[in-house]
UniProtKB/TrEMBL annotation:
PANTHER family assigned: FI03373P-RELATED, MULTI-COPPER OXIDASE
Plastocyanin-like domain mapped to chain residues: 83-188, 214-327
Lineage: Bacteria, Pseudomonadati, Pseudomonadota, Betaproteobacteria, Burkholderiales
Signal peptide: 1-22
Protein name: Multicopper oxidase family protein
SUPFAM superfamilies with a match to the protein in the record: Cupredoxins
């Protein structure tokens, strides 16, 4: 045997390492924050691909039966909403990184290149794998130093919704946006996994970015000011489009520092899976809100049978807001007309607000610093929506083509189906003196100012 290096000499070293580098699958870089078309699997077992909201699925290379991916950890610029960009850390050009989408039983090899200024590692949240592939710095591997590429390899043993993120300086690296989704489709019909027509996925994340700035404050523990899905805030979050009657699955993972009760309008869903796997059918119940705790993943499924534009959002009111100062005093009912002038002597430009609530903020365009998202943004067909952050719209329309994810615009409500104004004064109230119960018995009703009525005779 001979040693290639000694035979060819030092001059060929560069060529050898270049050849070694060429063996890596080329990392696919994404610069657009738009939702990319689902990646129909070009090789391997077929499946119905997911749609990553404002994201994309990583293409892979088949190498002797192994699905090979290449993730590059690096600083990225993420447009969080039109007109507002953040300087984050992510993978392959974006935060979150690309969704890894494979099939149960696939052997998967993932190269991770570190182009950050500090060490990192990669943890495959929720996966069954050899301990040494678990990516916990110091526990199962040394950290990946800047400039180095490491490789992970394991079999995707169980179907479900998972994620990936660093297990090195987690506080900083996740506050900077380092995360991605991992979907493992079942290899055959599974008793607790239904086929769906539309399969959406996103991660809940949060940032603390001072208005006018672009870099997150990494020491923030709880008081984040940007609550995002896949590092996008409403109105920058794509709608979830469905054709009436479609079965829809929404996969949600939480990598923030608090829980998020996810709430849908006009429909009920069941939680069909967690990062622990599919939920047995006998253990499911209907909900319109489900809490997604920190570090959890939830699969929500429903039939999109009601036409319209339905809000889908986190139910924590502060999480449907964009950058705002929380130190604002409550001014409801306070006459501040005198106060404003006095404070202006001390604080030039001071503006009293909130004396009748904060709705005025939805239409006010205060000259904020450049690169700041409006606090309550997003225009709807009836005016300002008054929300930002963790909010989007489920758009259910008749007769959409399978695979058509284009925004269909605002819903045209059929005549007679809209809430409407009845005039300045309410119509004269007609207090029923008495009415007849379904059983034909006369029922007496309480009159204004009167005493309690009684039923029947
Ligand atoms: Cu929330």
């Amino acid at each position: 045997m001979f040693n290639r290096r000694s035979l060819l000499g030092a001059a060929s070293l560069a060529a050898v390492s270049k050849a070694a580098m060429a063996a890596l699958p080329e990392p696919v870089i994404q610069t657009s924050p738009d939702t990319q078309a689902p990646l129909v699997p070009p090789t391997g077992r077929p499946y119905n691909p997911v749609v990553t909201l404002n994201g994309w699925t990583a293409p892979w290379r088949m190498n002797a039966g192994v699905k090979e991916f290449h993730l590059v950890a690096e600083p990225v610029v993420r447009e969080m909403a039109p007109g507002f960009t953040a300087k984050l850390w992510g993978y392959n050009g974006q935060s979150p990184g690309p969704t890894i989408e494979v099939v149960e039983g696939d052997r998967v090899r993932i190269y991770v290149t570190n182009r950050l200024p500090e060490p990192t590692s990669m943890h495959w949240h929720g996966q069954r794998l050899p301990n040494g592939m678990d990516g916990v710095t110091g526990l199962t591997q040394p950290a990946i130093p800047p400039g180095k590429t490491w490789v992970y390899e394991f079999i995707a043993r169980r179907p479900g919704t998972f994620m990936y993120h660093p297990h090195a300086d987690e506080m900083v690296q996740m506050a900077m946006g380092m995360m991605g989704l991992w979907i493992t489709h079942p290899k055959a019909k599974h008793p607790h996994i239904d086929e769906v027509d539309r399969d959406y996925a996103f991660l809940l994340n949060a940032y603390d970015i001072e208005p006018g700035s672009a870099v997150p404050r990494i020491m923030t523990m709880l008081d984040f000011n940007l609550w995002s899905w896949n590092s996008r805030i409403f109105p920058g979050i794509a709608p979830l489009v469905a054709s009436q009657g479609d079965r829809v699955r929404i996969r949600v993972g939480n990598l923030t520092m608090t829980n998020h009760p996810m709430h849908i309008h006009g429909h009920e869903f069941t939680v069909t899976g967690t990062d622990g796997g599919p939920v047995p059918r006998t253990a499911r119940w209907p909900e319109v809100t489900t809490d997604v705790a920190v570090g959890q993943m939830r699969q929500l499924e429903f039939t999109a049978d009601e036409e319209g534009d339905w809000a889908f959002h986190c139910h924590k009111a502060h999480h449907t807001m964009n950058a705002m100062g929380h130190g604002v005093p409550t001014m409801l009912g306070v006459d501040a007309s005198d106060l404003e002038g006095k404070i202006r002597k001390l604080v030039p430009g001071y503006m009293a607000m909130g004396q009748t609530g904060m709705h005025e903020m939805t239409e006010m365009s205060m000259p904020g610093p450049a690169n700041t998202a409006p606090m309550m943004a997003g225009d709807g067909p009836f005016g300002a929506i008054g929300m930002g952050g963790m909010f989007s719209v489920l758009k259910v329309r008749r007769g959409l083509r399978r695979g058509d994810y284009a925004d269909p615009g605002w819903f045209q409500h059929p005549p007679g189906t809209l809430a409407r104004e009845v005039g300045d004064a309410p119509p004269a109230a007609v207090a029923p003196e008495a009415s007849v119960s379904p059983g034909g018995v006369e029922v007496q009703v309480r009159k204004p100012g009167g005493h309690a009525g009684h039923e029947g005779h």
